[in-house]
Each structure stands twice: as C-alpha cells, then as structure tokens.
Fold this protein.
Amino acid sequence: MVARNIDGKKWSATVQEEIRQKIAEITKSHRPPGLGVILVGDDPASRIYVTRKEEACQKVGIHSVEITLPASTTTEEVLAHVKQLADDEAIDGILVQDPLPAGVDTRQVLLAIPPEKDVDGFHPDNVGRLSLGYPRFVACTPAGVMELLHRENVTIRGKRAVIVGRSNIVGKPMGMLLLAEDATVIQCHSRTECLPVVCSSADILVVATGRPEMVRGSWIKPGAVVIDVGISRISQGEGKKDKLVGDVCYAEAAERASLITPVPGGVGPMTIAMLLKNSLHSALWRLGL
Ligand code: GUN
C-alpha cells in the first residue's frame, strides 16, 4: 500500500478562511478578536514562530499586540505584562511564547494567565477541563491533529490509537482527545518496552517524541493512519541545505500506511490555525455571541 498524504497546508488554509469569514461577519457590529503575545529573550526559532502567528492573525482580522522583552527580564516583570493583558478588555487571548529564559519561572507565568484567556490551553484549569470531558481551550497542536482526522473522515471510535510521547503540550492532551472520541488509547514513551510491537498494533499512530525518523516503516500496521508531530533540522553535510524531517521515517512509513502527514506541511500548519480558532472562540464568548 502507498499512503495518501494528509495536506495540512490545504486544511489550515480552509480553516483560516472559515475564521476570516466569521470575523468579517462579527466585526460589522463588534470589535475584532484580540491576541496578546509575549516574547521574552532572543531565541531565533521563537522569533520566527511569533512572527508567523502575528501574520496569520493579520490575515484573518485578529488584532494582535506583541510585547517583546529582553532575556534579562525577571519573572515579576513578565507577570506585570501578563496582568496588563489580562486587564485589557480588547484582548481575548494571551500567549507567552515558550521556552522562557532560564531566569523566568514558567509555571508561575502560566498560572497567571486567566484560564478564560488561555488560548494555548496550557493552564491547569483548561487541562483539567479537557480530562473531565468539558473542554474550554485545547492545546493547539493536538487540537490540530483532531481537526485533520475529522476533516479526512478518519474513523476514531473503537480504533486503537497509539501515541508515542507524553509531553504536557502534545502527548497527554492527544490521549485525552482521542479517548473522548472513543478510541482505545495506548500512551507510549521513552521507557515503553517493545515499542515497535506496540506501534504496529495501531490503527492510528501519533508520534511526538522530537527524535528524528525514530519510527520505522516496519513499526507501521498496513493501512494505518500515521500522524507525525515532529520536526527536526538534519544537516546533510557541508555545502548542502539542511533537511526537515519528522519523528517518522516518511519514505518507509508511506509504503505501509493508508494516510500520513508529511513533514513539513502536515501537522505544523494546523497549530497556527487552531490558535486563531481558539482566539475567535474566546472573543465570541467574551462578546456574548
Ligand atoms: N513554543 C512552541 N510551541 C508553542 C506553543 O504552542 N505555544 C507557546 N506559547 N509556545 C510554544
């Protein structure tokens, strides 16, 4: 079997167009949704992510406010900026770009974001709600994976979903989302014994380990749906361009899967689309619409 690609770029564009239309409708009589973004320090990857998020906001009509702070900023200073955004009526969502510099207490900062404005879905109140079955905001990457599965009409109920990875941002919420839709969920991690055998029992395999091309073709059940959340830059040697790869060896897995997300162009583009969706929903709730 040769897999068909799940086109994350296409689905992300579709979702963003739906969001743009909805915002155009509400802004006839109300203010636009507002997103406050805090970037601390000068991590180049974070700078790129934040710029991409803001460009996407602009395209769909979300008003975004960026607060850029030096790496020397203290926890108290970051907290003061979070409070300022929390008190701002025109701001519906607050995003503090991760990772924060070593001198800033990430947990304290995340706890200071009001759960009603936590469009990243990282606050314990939102994580708890998800686990109890009445979600408010869901973390954007796992929400994006669910959106892809839905839009591709993948059957989830009763199917065996194996997740490789247990991070708070991806692996854990991914398991809760699939369980809520009646999948039989197996959560794997770096200490799981016989990982290839467990993976090869998956109807839906979600890999989020951050280990480039770790999952091989022989680990894939023929006909499985393979979702690759990873993205790593691999050097091809001197003078050659770096290559972007996922956590799954795409060439091998595509020989056995029925559907697979490519890297890049699979899960990645959906993450931003879900941030915009969460920001829109926050605005709708806060405006009473
Ligand atoms: N850093 C990497 N991914 C994310 C994300 O989804 N949200 C935030 N706030 N920081 C990140």
Notes: Residues 95-98, 120, 140 surround guanine (CB under 6 Å). The mean pLDDT is 98. The longest strand covers residues 34-40.
